[in-house]
Amino acid sequence: MHRIDFNHISDKYRMFFDKGTEGEGALLHQEEQVMRLADQFGASVQSPNRRVTGSLFAKRYNSLLAGALYLWLFHGFGTDLSRDVIKIRLNGISLIFHLYGERSFSGWTDEEYIRHMMIDNAAPVFRLIASHTTIPEKNLWSHLSYLLAYWNQEWLRNELSDVLRNRIEDVYLELAKTYSLGSGFHACEDPLHTEHAILVRDTCCMNYRLQGEDRYCYTCPLITDERRWEKYRNAHQKEQALPEIAADKIKECAKVASI
Asked: Is the whole-model pTM more than 0.85?
């Protein structure tokens, strides 16, 4: 296991292993505080209604679950996701997570830790968000399914030992089988990067409902593939020598069960 770069964790997943500033944010096990924070988040993004707020709040919340899974797989580090040792706060339109649990997960299996993630954290948090904002709970699970599929693909692009690669694949299969997190998206051929897929959501996150022009994500199921490629290319403008996307590369996305 490599040494944990906590700057990387905070940059990628917005996780900080401290109690944060006293009086700021919401304690995750205090439902009224979380609902109030969700409403504040909605005001920050100028959400048109609570349903849009709930969708986008959960979409950002899922970063915590992805980060915890990364730490578990790559570093053998079990993040305590018990709701009474987590505080979340707003930073602009982002969610920041402060974690201060001291629970030991030594000797836990992958299946046991995944259950901790899903049952002790994701399930009750999604129920609360759905109840408060009227967004269907299944939409929130679909957002999580998409994000874990995205990170699974990104993690497997790294140079990994066979042991770690197999473990990542096995854990993803466990998430898909036991918690039905292998659906909620489909894959398109990436015309800019070989051996890579563009994942398209099956359930819109409703970002397009926010104020401003063209707020659709390139992962949105509501736009055409031609528009998707254009937005995808614009999102990768910083890459050097991007090839032009030939017309014969613009194909209708084929739905697949997983990647």
From this structure: yes
